[in-house]
Amino acid sequence: MADVESAVMRPTGGPKAHFGPTFVIPLALGSTLNPINSTMISTALAPIALDFHATVAQTGWLVAGLYLMSAIAQPTMGRLADLFGPRRVYLVSLALVALAGLGGAFAPSLGALVAVRILLGVGTSGAYPSAMRIFRSQSDRLGTPPPRTAMGVLSLAGIATTALGPVLGGLLTGLFGWHSIFTVNLPLALITAVLVLMGVPKDAPRAAGLEVLVKEIDFGGIVLFAAALLTLMFFLMNIDRPNWWLLPVSGAFWTVMTWHALRRRQPFIDVRMLVHNIPLTITYLRISMILFVPYCMIYGFAQWLESAAHYSASAAGLVTLPMSAMAGLCSLLAARTKGLRAPFIIAAAGGLIGCISLMFVHSATPIWLIGLAVMFVGIPMGMASTGTQAAIFLQAPASEIGMAAGLQRTFTYVGAIAAASLLGVVFGHRATDHGFHNLAIVMTVMTALLLVFTLLDRTLPRGAVG
Q: Residue 450: CA atoms inside 13 Å, Cβ hemisphere, count?
């Protein structure tokens, strides 16, 4: 197994190893596929429901299906990148994205469209962990510190597409119909694949085969993790009418999964690593808590603007642009910092300012004040994402960086599911000023606790790192 990992870590052939545009751009493009597909569908759910005569709950699986599959697939694809080479896994992932783009154009039913979204979740899950593994391989080969600026570009690309997803989805749906939000993946995947072939050095000759796949991929752990996450998701997505029996069932699955992981040398979720690597575990928990607030805004802010303030869907999307711009700016600033502690403190403090500001806006507030208030929510979105990438780069074992990067996205998606659950509770059947203020209160408490925790966190090194 050591031979496999060392071979993967030494890419051969292709262009000279560097972190220039031809190397970074294809990795950044691929990293946009998951966030943009996660949020772009938000403006297309209504026409899809109309075409297939579906309820809101039924179309909700188009969102939940992708998040659930992404949470499962991210660490899996990361482990495959560790075993078989990140460039190979990246290209296979892009092929699945292109296939899903074709499937979305011809899906005859809502069930088929959910299946397409699940396939899309698998395909888009390979890009980010593969990119992080490629960065680590190149950095080790060159003997350089973490490429903070290059990883900042990755973070900026993901942040920008997450925030712009609803606007782009509304534009495509209005001009070409909802099928276009799927078919746009076909040219994106093909262009990215060509750029990867041209700009990213080849992996080492294949050192892992089918026997290694069966031995090293923990299929039992994947099933247990999926069952634990699925039952927890069912509980969270219906928390306004809780099925309490799902909690002990989910707890049982988590317990069995932990027992199973402790008995395997290479488990799907490396519980030993999480227990012994406390800084990495705290990094996962922190990013889940920090991004909980932006996800509340992405999926709840537009609903409030449309229902309570009576803005159109396109106008509501445009009001989120200040948040997107701030997130992009903070991502670039975080990429230029030399430490880990400052970005996380700024992220929590900025989020706290934004959440407190939102407590004082209402449907009659001037639009420029609303945009100013929501702009501060972009601070944790940008500062924390880039800082977390650097933290994982430094804290995770070199041989498991792909899996570790994938697990980061898994924790992020848990935060997204929790945000969606909270919106169902505070909004009920319709988003109102009262519900929006309750949402702001919950987010304020969350960010205040996060700020105190970050200030007291001794796992974050002081000063420059790298």
A: 30
Token pair of 355 as six digits: 């959440």
Q: What is the phi/psi pair of residue 326, to 5°?
A: -65, -40
Residues 268, 221 contacting (CB under 8 angstroms): yes
Distance between CA atoms of 356 and 441, rounded to whole angstroms?
A: 8
Cβ within 8 Å of residue 175, ≥6 positions away: none
Which pTM does this prediction carry? 0.72
For 180-218, b/e burial (b = at least 16 CB within 10 A) is bbbbbbbebbeebbebbeebbbebbeebbeeeeeeebbb
For residue 204, the 8-state DSSP code is P
Q: Where are the alpha helices (DSSP H) in 107-147?
A: 110-124, 127-142
Distance CA(372)–CA(66), nearest Å, equals 31
Q: How confident is the model at residue 9 (pLDDT cuts 50, 70, 90)?
A: very low
> Is the confidence at residue 148, as pLDDT, over 90?
no
Q: Are 283 and 388 in contact (CB under 8 A)?
A: yes
* Residue 239 pLDDT: 67
Tokens coding 445: 């408490």
The alpha-helical segments, DSSP class H, found in 336-400 are 341-358, 367-375, 378-395
